Amino acid sequence: MATKTNAVRLVQQAKINCREEYYDFDPDDLNGMHVAEAISFPPEQVYKTLVAKGSRTGINIFCIPVCAELDLKKAAKAAGDKDMALIPVKDLLGLTGYIRGGCSPVGMKKKYPTYFEETCQLYDEIAVSAGERGHQMILNPIELAELVNAQLVDIIA
Question: Could you tell me what percentage of the chain is helix, strand and coil, using 3-state DSSP and rounding each to the nearest 5?
Fold first, then answer.
C-alpha cells in the first residue's frame, strides 16, 4: 500500500471524504487529459493546479479543468491585479513544495491566494493531484475549496 501524502493527510484531518486513484504516468508526457483517461474520470472534473504571479499580488494558485486553458486576464482580475503570468516550471518546487505533474492545491509550503474555476460546483466530486505524480484525490469541490480558502471564479478561456 502506498504511503499517504501530506495533501491526503490534510484532507483526512479536515474530515473530508476522499478517495484516491493511482495511475501510471510518463514523466515526458504529464498532460492532464492523460490523467483523466487513466483514472476513467471526465476531463471537466479533473483539475490541474497552476501557479502564477501577479505584478502586485505575487503568487496565486489557480485550479481549472484539464480540458481548459487559464485565461490570464480573468485570473488577474480575480486576484485584483492588472496582470498575471504563469511561473517558470523551475520555480515550482521552491514556491510550492511540489513538482510539475504533482502540484496539489492542498499542503503547499505557504498559503497562497487560491482560485477554483467556478464550474467545479456543478459536480459532486472532482479530482486533484494528491501531491505526487500518478496519484489523484477525488473529493467534493466545495469542501476542498473551503479547506484551502479558495474563491470560486470564472477563470477559463
Answer: 30, 30, 40
